[in-house]
Design brief:
four-stranded antiparallel β-sheet, alpha+beta, 8 strands
Length: about 250
């Protein structure tokens, strides 16, 4: 797929997220989605998710219960409205699927800009607006794992308290590691992480930022590993695990 076609697909995320497409148009977008690279699919899925979350927020912020008087006026107006049969379409109104989708995309883009402005005023920030208006940076590795179609998540307890959560994707060949409430190791010791598939393979030491409950760490090179382990080692780590603390299964 060319760069121009890829960009058109990403632009179509807006109308796709709003379910503003016919079944044929949605099927065409999904077919195009299968033909792009992994990063483009992740960008598309993230855009769809963010747009839907933004509109859900806008609907909550703008929700106002109509008065009984307004309801009565609307119902009365419906009863008094004469239904007009639309004219049969002429050949001049026929357009290609692409042109039809582009027109609808432009209309919905305008609506999304207005919605983003409402969110900015309501929540006092510009992050949501910049995301909806298509100014996203490339997705982070953690976002790519979270948006991967084959993502799985598993959690295990740490001895002495806290948990280790691993999100992993065979397609992205990566795992995301997040620790919550895990105590600092004793002086002169470190936690070490391992991919396990037969012989354990070290992927580094647990950092102070991980223990402080930050955003987590992404580790590439998952390969055919069937487990992810944490061990307690002398400061600086060991070539092979000394004391395995917990092990999480990475299903196929």
């Amino acid at each position: 797929m060319s760069e121009a076609s890829r960009q058109r697909l990403l632009d179509a995320a807006e109308v796709y997220a709003l379910d503003a497409l016919s079944a044929a148009e949605a099927a065409e977008i999904e077919q195009d989605l299968d033909s792009v690279d992994y990063t483009s699919r992740v960008q598309f899925n993230i855009s769809v998710s963010e747009i839907r979350e933004t509109l859900a927020l806008v609907s909550v912020l703008d929700a106002i219960e109509p008065s009984d008087e307004l309801k009565a006026r609307v119902l009365e107006g419906i009863r008094g409205t004469t239904q007009v049969t639309p004219p049969a379409p002429s050949s001049s109104t026929v357009s290609s699927l692409k042109r039809h989708r582009d027109r609808r995309s432009n209309r919905w883009r305008t609506m999304m800009m207005a919605a983003a402005a409402v969110v900015v005023v309501a929540v006092g920030g510009g992050v949501v607006a910049s995301q909806v208006l298509g100014n996203d940076p490339d997705p982070t590795q953690a976002e790519q794992i979270a948006a991967a179609p084959d993502v799985r998540t598993t959690t295990a307890d740490f001895p002495g308290g806290g948990t280790a959560t691993v999100s992993y994707s065979r397609e992205s060949d990566s795992v995301g590691v997040k620790l919550d409430g895990v105590p600092q190791p004793s002086a002169g010791q470190d936690y070490q992480m391992w991919f396990v598939d037969g012989t354990p393979r070290s992927v580094g030491l647990v950092t102070p930022d991980q223990l402080a409950g930050g955003d987590g760490t992404v580790i590439d090179g998952m390969g055919a590993s069937t487990n992810f382990a944490f061990s307690l080692e002398p400061a600086g780590g060991s070539p092979q695990p000394t004391e395995v603390l917990t092990m999480l299964t990475l299903s196929a």
